[in-house]
Every structure is written in structure tokens, then in C-alpha cells.
């Protein structure tokens, strides 16, 4: 039997060995990749941590306003009479309701962002720099600065409100439709000022936080305004309805009850923030 000689210097043999070695080297990164949390998992945990933060502050606000946090008492209270679900009723002007105004909004937003940031610290540590930038953007740019703009504009308008309303035209006819139209006409200046102040506040907040993020974190890419940036300001819809003569109505208090849920969105945005590839 003839045995052909084997050329160990054959480039084909070396290439085959190198390819096999490369395949084995891919096993460890693949295992490492499988351990990484999926984006869906991070989003879920961000939502939960944000809700916990918002809920904690909401409970503190309810307690401060005289609502009981005693589990036994809450258990025996109908769901519709819980602080967060209780709404105004016609014929019950003295009905105690949970008040959510400027300072409560800021407190709830702070709890939301703190919850999202805490969740990020626990579940997604490698993206903490991105979460810190988003926390600044959400709290300062989307809450504190816009609320300051809207609150300041509202107080300034309050000083000249009577003069402006007296100068507005009114329809002289007595029926429900005309009364509604007249109320709407009188509300137009306040609604317009509120909308302008809110837009200006969010725009300014975006510019300010982009500047701070660039100087503090070295972030060169500018963050654009998102539709979710308006979520913390659903309470301004309450203001618009109130200005049309519906203060303490079921509609207004129902909208107000949704404010804590919308205020959990800033914390969610913080918790899921990641560095862009």
C-alpha cells in the first residue's frame, strides 16, 4: 500500500484549522450575549419602577391631604371612593377630593424619575450615564421649566383677566348653546396663553437640558422634543375645561385622576434610556 506524503505547510490545511478555531471563539460571546436583558425586559422593569416611585409619592400626598392609608380601612372602602378614584359629584360641593396642583405635580414627577433611575441602577447599570442625562431632561426640561412657564403665565394673566374678559364680544341670546359659546369665547385668551406658555416652556427646557448635558456629560447629539414630553402636562387640559365654567365638575376631576399615570411616563423614559449604538 502506498501512503501519500502529507504536506503540513499546505495553506488549505491552515485555513481549515483557523476557521475551526474562529468558530470555537464565537461560543463565549454568544453565551455572554444570551445573558443580556432584552429591550422588552428593560422597558417592563422601567415601567414598574416608575410606577412604584410615582405610587409612593402619591400615597404620601394622599396621607398629607387627610386620606387614610390604613390597609383595613382602605379594604372596607368602595373602590370608587379611594383617593385616586374619587371624583366630583353634582350636588355634593363639600365632597373631599385629592388635589393635584403645581407642587403635587413636581413631587409626583420627582418620584417617577427617582423610581425610573433606581430601577435602572438595579437592572441596567451599564447605561447609567444615558439614564442620568434623561433624568435631567425629564425633571428639569419637561416638568420644572414648563410648569414654571405655565404657572407664571397663569399668575400674570390673573392680574388682567377681568379687563380682557370684559373687552371680549358676547352673543346676546339666552339658551344653553349660546351660554356655552360665550364661556368658550371668554376662555380663549387663557387657553391660548396656557398653550403658548407650555410650548415655550418645553422648548426652553429642551434647549437648557441639551446645553447642560453637553457641558456636564459631553453629549454632542442633541435630544429632540418627543410627543411623550407633553405627558406630564395633562393637567393643563383640566385648566382649559375649568376656564369654561366647569370647575370641580366630574369631567375635570376625572381628568385630574389620570395625572399620576401620565406623570409616571418621565420615570419610564429614564428607566429605559440606553446609549445609542
Q: How would you explain this protein's 3D organization?
A:
- The protein has 10 helices and no strands.
- It is an all-alpha fold and 277 residues long.
- The longest helix has 42 residues, at 176-217.
- It is flat and about 65 Å long.
- The model is unreliable at 24-35 (pLDDT under 50).
The low-confidence runs, each spanning 5 or more residues with pLDDT under 50, are 24-35
Fraction in helix: 55-70%
Distance between the termini: 61 Å
Instruction: Give the CA-based shape.
Output: flat
Biggest beta sheet summary: none
Number of strands: 0
So how many helices? 10
Category from helices, strands and their pairing: mainly alpha
The pLDDT mean sits at 81
Rg to the nearest angstrom? 28 Å
Q: Name the helix and strand elements from N-terminus to C-terminus, one letter apiece.
A: HHHHHHHHHH
* DSSP strand content: under 5%
Characteristics:
70% helix, 277 residues, mainly alpha, single chain
Q: What's the short version?
A:
The protein has 277 residues and is mainly alpha-helical. The chain has ten helices and no strands.
Please specify the SSE layout and strand pairing.
Blueprint: H1 11-25, H2 27-35, H3 39-64, H4 71-75, H5 102-123, H6 128-167, H7 176-217, H8 235-246, H9 250-257, H10 259-272
Helix pairs in contact: 3-5, 3-10, 5-6, 5-10, 6-7, 6-10, 7-8, 8-9
